[in-house]
């Protein structure tokens, strides 16, 4: 099967990193923004935007509060889908797979790289929970600032998730809506990829 140009390569993670690197040069805001889809306990889908922080050799990593709605949904049903869409490139990447936590040194290092205000905000925000006012939140931030000081550790309820995919689809816009689509599928993590061209 002929896959040339920006579809060329034998490693879907490398292709995805290459596309993201291209988007970083042309996309005006947050080229690493992804729409993340999970399901709740009743099987009702939920989708929101998050920032993809790493495309590793085996997965796609983002960070969040584990007690948030997405954190709770992923704990109950550790499967997810995400899509990166770049209008500047007229391309997208769709990912579906299994989810596991990314904790330890990698999560600590990413947390430490964030601004101090973001690190303190992670401690103060009970993400997805009801909040009576912004004043209440800012008061909590001030209290956490006094307690934790200028170098707060990563909260135990905050860290990463990695989607290890069983399906990755690369899509590029084509003339007359005759788009190019290639999907990489495997029956299970660790299995070999099978690649197919799809109709637009």
UniProtKB/TrEMBL annotation:
One of its GO terms (molecular function) is pyridoxamine phosphate oxidase activity. It comes from Roseovarius mucosus. Catalyzes the oxidation of either pyridoxine 5'-phosphate (PNP) or pyridoxamine 5'-phosphate (PMP) into pyridoxal 5'-phosphate (PLP). PANTHER family: PYRIDOXINE-5'-PHOSPHATE OXIDASE, PYRIDOXINE-5-PHOSPHATE OXIDASE. InterPro entries: Pyridox_Oxase (IPR000659), Pyridox_Oxase_CS (IPR019740), Pyridox_Oxase_N (IPR011576), Pyridoxamine_oxidase_dimer_C (IPR019576), Split_barrel_FMN-bd (IPR012349). This is Pyridoxine/pyridoxamine 5'-phosphate oxidase. The keyword Oxidoreductase applies. Its cofactor is FMN.
């Amino acid at each position: 099967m002929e896959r040339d140009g920006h579809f060329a390569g034998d490693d879907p993670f490398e292709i995805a990193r290459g596309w993201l690197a291209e988007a970083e040069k042309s996309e005006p805001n947050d080229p690493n923004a992804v729409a993340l889809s999970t399901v709740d306990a009743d099987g009702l889908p939920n989708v929101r935007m998050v920032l993809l922080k790493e495309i590793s050799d085996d997965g796609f990593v983002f960070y969040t509060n584990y007690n948030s709605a997405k954190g709770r949904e992923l704990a109950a049903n550790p499967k997810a889908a995400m899509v990166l869409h770049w209008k500047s490139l007229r391309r997208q990447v769709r990912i579906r797979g299994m989810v596991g936590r990314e904790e330890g040194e990698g999560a600590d290092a990413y947390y430490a790289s964030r601004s101090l205000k973001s690190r303190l905000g992670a401690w103060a925000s009970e993400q997805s929970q009801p909040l009576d006012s912004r004043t209440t939140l800012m008061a909590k931030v001030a209290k956490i600032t006094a307690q934790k000081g200028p170098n707060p550790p990563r909260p135990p309820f905050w860290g990463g998730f990695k989607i290890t995919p069983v399906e990755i689809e690369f899509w590029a816009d084509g003339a007359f809506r005759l788009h190019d689509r290639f999907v990489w599928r495997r029956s299970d993590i660790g299995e070999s990829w099978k690649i197919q061209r799809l109709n637009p």
